């Protein structure tokens, strides 16, 4: 009986498996992938009936362009190995290939989904309508640069062009492009164009790197992505503020055509001339209106108005006085008659008064002629004798100093 230790048995199994299964290609569904802090990837590969543990070390994992996720179907190229301390065998993965689609395409879709979730495809900055300066982020030796310069000279040679050289292919291209974008963003230009000519998916892959997407999204200057041909789409196309199908098309899209601009300027000049004529005509009419208004409101015109008012008032006053005098003149005969009547009445009154005063004077004179201790008889205001009175008359007895009322009781003849 040949008795061996557990370690010896595991070693024999390890040698047997590793010598027999040097390289295998296994297809299955990923389960519970774990990216360890050491940089290694641990996961399981399963089908409907079985499961095998897998590990991929950091050096091999660095070549995988996509991220392994739970539920992915992969084709794993690797070798079988045994972990002696636990007597467990597992598949040591050397390559990972998505089942049914390419690895780069899967990586593209994963990054696109991730950036969309972060909002990288939103809040696009507007491209200025008139561009005075542009920064071209591309290879100085590439055909894309010459194509863009040719279109610039053809369409708008007044454009200020700043070229920021960068790698546009290879493993070091993505960091170079990201740095070039940062430099271009600091130049104070109106627009940045990031571009290169066509190529395979691998050739254009540097524009699908997350570091380039971060640089485009962080830039303050509007960015145009002009990578490859019209059928090529890269991540920078989605993050940029404008996507152009080719570098040449980018220049045609953002720059005005000088012939079209000259025609537009001619149209503007014609429109401006017409507009100026309309404005001048309107202003002329307004000036005429203001001149008339000023004439109406000028001090001389105001004085003329006042003078006219004074003359009108004078005329009205003269007419009113004339009418008043005519009215008074028509009343003059009546006033004259009334005055004459009043004079006559006054004269009559004065005559009566004078007669009375004459009588009084006469009586006074007669009273002075009376003998002492005698009195004068006055009847109805006239001196009378006893012969002129009758029984029952009321008379006055007067002398120079006194007057007495008396009544004739009886009259007899002597």
Task: Using brief descriptors, characterize the structure shown.
single chain; 414 residues; alpha/beta; Rossmann fold; 5-stranded mixed β-barrel; 14 strands
Report what the structure shows.
The protein has 414 residues and is an alpha/beta fold. It folds into four domains: 6-100, OB fold (Dihydrolipoamide Acetyltransferase, E2P) (Beta Barrel); 110-121 and 131-256, Rossmann fold (3-Layer(aba) Sandwich), CATH 3.40.50; 258-304; 365-407, no CATH class. The protein has helices at residues 6-20, 58-61, 103-117, 143-155, 173-185, 210-218, 235-239, 247-254, 258-297, 299-369; strands spanning 24-35, 41-46, 51-56, 73-83, 88-98, 133-138, 160-165, 191-196, 223-227, 242-243, 376-379, 382-384, 394-398, 403-407. Strands 1-2-3-5-4 form a five-stranded mixed barrel. α4 (143-155) packs parallel to α8 and α5 (173-185) packs parallel to α6 (210-218). It is rod-shaped. 19% of the residues are buried. The mean pLDDT is 85.
Please name the CATH architecture of the largest domain: 3-Layer(aba) Sandwich
Q: Give the overall average pLDDT.
A: 85
How can the largest sheet be summarized? 5 strands, mixed, barrel
CATH superfamily of the largest domain: Succinyl-CoA synthetase domains
Note the beta-strand portion. Answer: 15-25%
What is the strand arrangement across the widest sheet? 1-2-3-5-4
Coarse shape:
rod-shaped
Tell me, what is the CATH class of the largest domain?
Alpha Beta
Number of domains: 4
Task: Summarize the structure in short.
The chain has helices spanning 6-20, 58-61, 103-117, 143-155, 173-185, 210-218, 235-239, 247-254, 258-297, 299-369; strands at residues 24-35, 41-46, 51-56, 73-83, 88-98, 133-138, 160-165, 191-196, 223-227, 242-243, 376-379, 382-384, 394-398, 403-407.
């Amino acid at each position: 009986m040949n008795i061996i230790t557990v370690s010896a048995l595991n070693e024999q199994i390890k040698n047997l498996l590793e010598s027999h299964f040097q390289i295998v290609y296994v297809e299955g569904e990923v389960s519970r992938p774990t990216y360890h802090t050491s940089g290694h990837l641990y996961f399981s590969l399963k089908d409907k009936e079985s499961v095998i543990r897998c590990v991929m070390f950091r050096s091999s994992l660095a070549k995988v362009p996509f991220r392994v996720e739970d539920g992915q179907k992969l084709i794993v190229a690797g070798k079988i190995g045994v972990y002696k301390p636990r007597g467990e065998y597992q598949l040591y993965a050397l390559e990972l290939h998505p089942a049914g689609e390419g690895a780069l395409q899967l990586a593209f879709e994963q990054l696109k989904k991730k950036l969309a979730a972060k909002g990288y495809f939103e809040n696009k900055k507007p491209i200025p309508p008139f561009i005075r300066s542009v920064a071209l982020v591309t290879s100085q030796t590439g055909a894309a640069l010459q194509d863009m310069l040719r279109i610039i000279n053809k369409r708008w040679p007044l454009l200020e062009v700043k070229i920021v050289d960068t790698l546009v292919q290879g493993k070091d291209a993505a960091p170079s492009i990201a740095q070039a974008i940062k430099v271009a963003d600091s130049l104070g230009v109106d627009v940045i164009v990031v571009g290169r000519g066509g190529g395979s998916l691998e050739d254009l892959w540097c524009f699908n790197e997350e570091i380039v997407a971060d640089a485009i999204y962080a830039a303050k200057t509007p960015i145009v992505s002009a990578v490859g041909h019209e059928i090529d789409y890269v991540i920078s196309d989605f993050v940029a503020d404008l996507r152009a199908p080719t570098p040449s098309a980018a220049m045609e899209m953002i720059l005005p055509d000088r012939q079209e601009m000259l025609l537009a300027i001619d149209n503007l000049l014609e429109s401006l001339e017409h507009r100026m004529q309309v404005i001048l005509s309107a202003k002329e009419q307004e000036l005429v209106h203001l001149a008339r208004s000023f004439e109406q409101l000028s001090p001389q015109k105001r004085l003329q108005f006042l003078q006219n008012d004074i003359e009108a008032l004078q005329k009205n006053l003269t007419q009113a006085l004339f009418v008043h005098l005519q009215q008074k003149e028509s009343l003059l005969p009546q006033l004259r008659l009334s005055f004459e009547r009043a004079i006559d009445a006054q004269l009559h009154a004065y005559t009566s008064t004078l007669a009375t005063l004459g009588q009084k004077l006469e009586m006074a004179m007669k009273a002075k002629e009376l003998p002492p201790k005698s009195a004068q008889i006055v009847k109805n205001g006239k001196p009378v004798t006893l012969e002129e009175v009758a029984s029952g008359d009321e008379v006055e007895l007067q002398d120079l100093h006194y007057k007495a009322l008396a009544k004739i009781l009886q009259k007899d003849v002597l």
